[in-house]
Design goal:
28 helices
């Protein structure tokens, strides 16, 4: 009898034993603060009526937990506007608007524009992410008015009857009403990996998922009352935290803040007290010294780069559930692939049926047809059998055993048309047959051709006997051919080119998996390992994993152990999969990647969901991550070089008791041409270099020497100019000479960061240099920025000092790269 038949035989209300969530004393008083909800009704196979659903919606018994795939609009605005550095700059901006010309307040308008760009980009990312989340949202099957339909999780009401099958996630808390070999994994809630067999009356908790069998349960807690509601909401939240890139930037900004405070105080005292200058001019120069210390654009540019990454991937139907996943996948050096659904398409075809032991082919086909009908939720292999061999109406299923990836077989007991009873198993031949069985040689030959082989065997034991697979009698081999993904070979080739090692980890026969991998050109596909022979000790397992590429007969727990073993060797591991047996490994991997058509459980734990089910999308994700990290590392050097030279210049000014050489307008011009505009283009440029660790070290090893040389060169020019120029307008001439040296030195840092050169990178650097020349050449721009080179001696001296500084920076960067490789 099938599961569907069982549902109908229970009658409209089901057996008394399949009750709700329990009863309460009829005379008990209700606490007005914490009212006790009335007892749930008995399990009703047909589900609620339309009127009952409407009644529960009216009283608020709806699963209304907002599944937030992204930050709210208010959170995005707050995060971009209300920052520590924006507050500092905002105060300085107001001061400059009061005491100085508008030219010295340009830095404030730049911050407003940058913040606006950041908000717009994140809102675009939010729109993309929210739209994809709706597309990727799984819809549970709910019975209402005697029929089953898929609805959104937010439409579930209290007492709804929800069906469960392999791979389904339990979306609300409830009580089991029907169970047909129902095994639920609660590891995401309890940490216990062993599946729990559920029977009618047993509770189920949201956040768990089905690994075998099927059934249905009554919802007893919905919305925020459900056990895993808070966890589910948190798991799908759009976040910019928990990444080496973001934490590294936060660390840098913390130290910058500590340096800024004493330096700024010293500069203020120096300019306002020690030097007896015009008050407004002193304030302007003080602000001019403080503003460039703040690398405000670095945080903004990182957010924008991540947000644009989400939008780009969204266009390729890739849902990034956690933004750091873009960064994480870029750091991956080992990707573990599940064969089924990743290298091969979900569908399969029966290519041959070989009868064994004198079995009649016609009888074998009847058995296979009946087995197909016995499982209401067939996997890909069984679906191929159902398509090839229709059910025989005169056979009746009396008991069924759903397929489990742990035991590697399924089964059913039948009452045949002539009154005879029989028990049949269908599964992996090397599991059902003893070692050395003659049939295994024939099977190995088929596996070597990349074909999948299932054994149909008759058991002399009852289906619920733990030893049902012992001593079975082989009846037939079912030969299946898997459909290779047309894009899988190119994707594997991409990973090979990018020095990312691919490991195929499958529950199927190792030889068969190796043959499939070989057809796709996987390096080392001939090195196949039967996971049942793998050592259990982590170090030895890691050695076996490093030396081989294809692993078959891997259990779900072994997949998890293999991920941990690879991580123990310092590897950053990505795991792909679509089946429920992949969940534990996906959860433990550095990056979990799920197919959109995969089970709801895999989509729930994965950081990246490929909604188009295309393995070929992965290179795009890797490339996007490498682009973001590599480019942010590049531009961070620009921002922090400015911070270093600004702090050091302020210290030198305080120590030598001289006027600060720059007005805010000077540094706004320099920052725009040597950092702001170039950084924007460099941050969005293609970059295929694999992400490397130690972000802070990699950035600061260049920023510190570059900033120190730029500051010293600029200050030397300033001191020489102070001795060269005298009389009215001397300070303006001195500032112009110092600005020229700082610009040329900063341009050389930009030229180094822009390498390797392409036509557009050369054009970018050239355009910035041309823009500065235009400012020096056009009279009204000279006046606007208060930049005018006087004479020829001092300007050429400034150029010579800058050239020597550029030479030192070049030599120093090369020495640092050799001495302190990162």
């Amino acid at each position: 009898m099938t599961q569907r038949a069982k549902i109908e035989s229970d009658g409209p209300d089901g057996p008394e034993s399949r009750g709700g969530s329990g009863a309460i004393d009829a005379g008990a008083e209700l606490d007005p603060v914490h009212p006790v909800r009335p007892p749930a009704p008995r399990f009703r196979p047909g589900g609620l009526s339309t009127a009952e659903v409407a009644e529960r919606v009216a009283r608020g018994d709806v699963n209304d937990v907002p599944v937030r795939s992204s930050r709210s609009t208010s959170d995005i605005v707050r995060a971009n506007v209300f920052t520590r550095f924006n507050a500092i700059i905002g105060v300085l901006w107001v001061i400059m608007l009061i005491v100085a010309p508008i030219q010295d307040s340009l830095f404030g308008y730049v911050i407003v524009a940058n913040t606006g760009i950041g908000i717009i980009q994140e809102l675009r990312a939010k729109k993309t992410l929210d739209g994809l989340a709706v597309i990727g949202e799984a819809k549970p099957s709910v019975r209402r008015d005697g029929t089953t339909a898929e609805i959104s999780t937010s439409e579930i009401v209290l007492d709804d009857v929800i069906e469960l099958g392999p791979g389904d996630k339990v979306v609300v808390d409830g009580t089991v009403g029907e169970a047909d070999g129902l095994e639920i994994d609660e590891s995401l809630l309890t940490g216990e990996a062993d599946p729990v067999l559920k029977k009618p009356g047993d509770p189920v908790m949201s956040g768990s998922f089905v690994v075998a069998g099927g059934g249905a349960f009554t919802a007893t807690k919905v919305g925020r009352e459900a056990y895993a509601a808070q966890l589910a909401e948190e798991a799908t939240r759009f976040t910019l935290v928990h990444s080496e890139l973001r934490s590294g930037i936060s660390t840098i900004l913390k130290y910058v803040t500590w340096m800024m405070i004493p330096t700024s105080i010293g500069l203020i005292i120096s300019q306002l007290v020690v030097k007896d200058n015009n008050l407004k001019d002193s304030i302007a120069r003080t602000v001019g010294g403080i503003v460039p210390m703040i690398p405000e654009g670095l945080v903004l540019l990182t957010s924008v780069a991540f947000a644009i990454g989400v939008v780009r991937l969204g266009r390729k139907q890739c849902l990034v559930q956690e933004l750091p996943a873009i960064e994480g996948l870029a750091r991956v050096d080992v990707v573990c692939l599940d064969k089924t659904g990743t290298l091969t398409e979900g569908g399969m075809d029966v290519t041959e049926l070989r009868a064994l032991g004198g079995a009649e082919p016609a009888y074998v086909k009847k058995v296979l047809g009946a087995l197909g009908e016995s499982d209401p939720r067939p996997n890909a292999s069984l679906q191929a059998i159902i398509d090839a061999y229709p059910d025989s109406a005169d056979w009746r299923c009396t008991e069924s055993l759903p397929f489990s990836s742990t035991r590697k077989y399924s089964g059913a007991s039948f009452s045949e048309g002539d009154g005879e009873n029989s028990t049949w198993l269908l599964g992996a031949p090397d599991v059902l047959l003893p070692a050395g069985d003659p049939a295994l040689d024939e099977i190995n030959g088929l596996n070597e051709q990349g074909l999948r082989v299932l054994l149909l065997a008759r058991s002399g034991r009852e289906l619920d006997d733990a030893a049902v697979a012992t001593g079975v009698k082989p009846a037939a081999l079912v030969v299946l051919e898997q459909r290779l993904r047309p894009d899988a070979a190119d994707t594997l080739r991409y990973f090979e080119d990018q020095n990312v090692r691919a490991k195929v980890i499958s529950g199927d026969n190792a030889i068969s998996v190796g043959a499939v991998a070989g057809k796709l050109g996987l390096p080392g596909a001939e090195n196949t390992v039967d996971a049942r022979k793998l050592p259990t000790e982590r170090t030895e397992m890691a050695e076996a994993l490093d030396g081989n590429a294809v692993f078959g007969r891997v259990t779900p727990q072994q997949k998890r152990d293999m991920v941990a073993a690879l991580q123990s060797r310092g590897h950053t591991v990505a795991m792909t999969g679509d089946g429920v047996n992949d969940v534990l490994a996906l959860k433990d991997a550095d990056i979990g990647v799920s197919m959109g058509s995969g089970s709801e459980a895999t989509r729930a734990v994965a950081q990246i969901v490929l909604l188009n089910n295309s393995f070929a999308t992965l290179p795009s994700v890797v490339a996007e991550g490498r682009r973001v990290i590599g480019n942010i590392t590049r531009v961070a050097t620009l921002f922090l070089t400015k911070t270093v030279y600004s702090v050091l210049l302020a210290i030198l000014v305080v120590c030598f008791q001289v006027e600060y050489p720059f007005l805010p307008r000077h540094l706004t011009l320099l920052s725009t041409l040597t950092i702001g505009v170039p950084a924007f283009f460099l941050a969005l440029a293609p970059n295929k270099e694999r992400a490397k660790p130690h972000f802070v070290k990699r950035v600061m090893r260049y920023a510190i020497p570059g900033g120190v040389i730029a500051a010293v060169a600029t200050f030397v020019t300033y001191l020489v100019a102070r001795h060269h120029y005298t009389g009215a307008g001397a300070l303006e001439a001195e500032s112009s000479a110092a600005t020229l040296t700082l610009f040329l030195t900063s341009m050389w840092v930009l030229a180094i960061i822009a390498r390797p050169y392409t036509w557009w990178r050369v054009g970018l650097v050239g355009a910035m240099g041309l823009a500065f020349l235009i400012v020096l050449a056009v009279p009204w721009l000279q006046t606007f920025f208060e930049l005018k080179l006087i004479g020829t001696t001092m300007p050429w001296t400034a150029v010579a000092i800058a050239a020597f500084a550029a030479f030192l920076i070049e030599i120093t960067f090369r020495w640092v790269n050799h001495r302190f490789p990162a």
